[in-house]
């Protein structure tokens, strides 16, 4: 099945790419830790339900197109702009740098090729080795990439601005070795070198250097493999990798040779496809604002969720105090579907937005899943 782009999606991919070109992570970005309070979870408070019951919200347009990442081509994540293709297998000439990506900050009218970030430390080219003029060397640039980590053993996406020349390699390395901006997110892998990641005969080949080890409970070995598979397949579905059209499987190599298994338990002797997202994906994902992002008013929260009857509760806090709350609905129920929350004009300051499942068990079942993002509203 072919990936088709609407005019809105084309505008979005340009916007995300422009945002990636502009993002520079602040020196304190990873040090910002969310506030925790000792009070009982707000979703257990009957007062909230009394307030929320009177709130009727309609699902607005989502800012991340094709947000419901499933196992088919139409469900794959899509995102920004043109970039060197994965056939250009040169490793980035500098360590990849990452930053959170907030799609709402982008200027869709800006040419994404305006500022391709050169590498100031690159060695001069020997004239005898100078490439043909028709094949100039790839230039490192910022790319907005869908990087998957895990929350409570389930995969979840974080859009990151990564500097490099090869989107597949950069995304795989960021997932397995990078640091998420959201402190709840983590990788299930021990650090491992990603030698290459490229599309070969309709299959994504990811070559890892041994040792390849799990940094989690052995029961999460399958989820660790899916963390990598979801990352590279989502990246391959973007126009950054134009030779891929639709869903493709992933072949995992170790030291250049096909691996029979990973972590001593996961069979990877054949190319691996995405597991059904309802089985491996965290049920709530806030795409925008990104964790730690600076935004301006009016503020819109958007993401994707698979929640009972399409209902999700939300709460906005500032300095530990609730300033707003309500109910939002996904576009479809019982499947991963977009949601949107209009917060309107907010005073400058740091806020925390939480979106969570409605507890239909009335406290008798498991704790509802939730997603929290901290963001800062800046003065105009």
TrEMBL record:
It comes from Phytoactinopolyspora alkaliphila. Residues 112-135 have a biased composition (Acidic residues). The keyword Membrane applies. The keyword Lipid biosynthesis does not apply. Keywords: Membrane, Transmembrane, Transmembrane helix. It holds the Pfam family Gmad2. Residues 76-139, 359-380 are annotated as: Disordered. The chain crosses the membrane at residues 47-69. The lineage of its organism: Bacteria, Bacillati, Actinomycetota, Actinomycetes, Jiangellales. InterPro entries: GerMN (IPR019606), Gmad2_Ig-like_dom (IPR018911). This is GerMN domain-containing protein. Residues 284-364 form the Bacterial spore germination immunoglobulin-like domain. Signal peptide: none annotated. Residues 83-103 have a biased composition (Low complexity). Residues 146-259 form the GerMN domain.
């Amino acid at each position: 099945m072919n990936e088709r782009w609407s005019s809105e999606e084309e505008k979005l991919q340009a916007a995300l790419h422009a945002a990636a070109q502009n993002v520079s992570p602040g020196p304190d970005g990873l040090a910002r830790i969310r506030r925790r309070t000792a009070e009982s979870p707000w979703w257990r408070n009957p007062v909230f339900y009394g307030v929320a019951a009177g709130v009727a919200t309609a699902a607005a347009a989502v800012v991340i197109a094709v947000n419901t990442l499933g196992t088919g081509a139409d469900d794959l994540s899509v995102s920004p702009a043109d970039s060197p293709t994965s056939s250009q297998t040169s490793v980035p000439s500098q360590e990849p740098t990452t930053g959170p990506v907030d799609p709402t900050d982008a200027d869709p009218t800006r040419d994404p090729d305006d500022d391709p970030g050169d590498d100031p430390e690159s060695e001069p080219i020997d004239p005898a080795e100078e490439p043909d003029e028709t094949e100039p060397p790839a230039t490192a640039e910022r790319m907005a990439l869908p990087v998957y980590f895990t929350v409570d053993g389930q995969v979840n996406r974080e859009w990151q601005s990564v500097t490099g020349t090869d989107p597949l390699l950069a995304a795989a390395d960021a997932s397995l070795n990078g640091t998420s901006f959201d402190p709840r997110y983590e990788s299930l892998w021990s650090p491992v070198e990603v030698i290459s990641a490229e599309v070969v005969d309709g299959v994504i080949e990811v070559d890892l250097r041994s040792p390849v080890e799990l940094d989690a409970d052995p029961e999460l070995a399958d989820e660790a493999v899916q963390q990598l598979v979801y990352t590279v397949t989502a990246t391959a579905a973007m126009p950054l990798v134009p030779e891929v059209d639709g869903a493709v499987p992933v072949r995992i190599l170790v030291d250049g040779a096909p691996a029979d298994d990973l972590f001593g338990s996961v069979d990877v002797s054949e190319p691996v496809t995405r597991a059904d997202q309802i089985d491996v994906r965290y049920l709530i994902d806030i795409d925008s604002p990104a964790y730690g992002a600076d935004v301006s008013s009016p503020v819109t929260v958007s993401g994707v969720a698979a929640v009972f009857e399409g209902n999700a509760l939300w709460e906005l806090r500032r300095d530990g105090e609730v300033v707003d709350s309500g109910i939002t609905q996904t576009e479809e129920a019982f499947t991963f579907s977009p949601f949107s929350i209009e917060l309107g004009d907010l005073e400058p300051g740091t806020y925390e937005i939480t979106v969570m499942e409605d507890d239909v068990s009335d406290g008798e079942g498991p704790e509802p899943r939730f997603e929290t993002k901290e963001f800062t509203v800046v003065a105009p």
